[in-house]
User: What shape does this take?
Amino acid sequence: MMAFTHAATGVFIGLGIARLTHAPHAMTLAMLAGGFAGSLLPDIDHPQSWLGRRIPFVSIPLSLLIGHRGATHSAMVLFLTLAGALAFAGTAGASGGLLAAFSGALCAGYASHLAADWLTPSGIPLLWPNPRRFKSRVTVQIGSLAEYSLAGVLWLVVVAMA
Assistant: This one.
């Protein structure tokens, strides 16, 4: 999927969590930011991705080491991200509530990215380093009308929920 679709899924997830938990305004903003950031984070391994172009000093070495849709698109890295986010939020002191909200949404956004890429014909290496790729039986071609429609619907729902 493309960055705008991943962003739509992450913001949708972040706002959805905020609404379900009746989060106050500041936590809602933290969840939106976390969902957005997490939804783009797996593509840090691609120098031409939205995030990769902004931090090439991370993206280029990762691309050379693991390639695109390798480790960063696996359950292992999702769980490591979750563990790191929870550990970081747990040591945050007074601002821990906001950091926990951000961290939780970051991980949900990361998972939404994996789910969106699971819908593409190339799938994801969920059990990396096992090279087997998992994909949905019904796939969405990247850049297709179906992808634009999915992103559009998600953005409309986000606006309606806001």
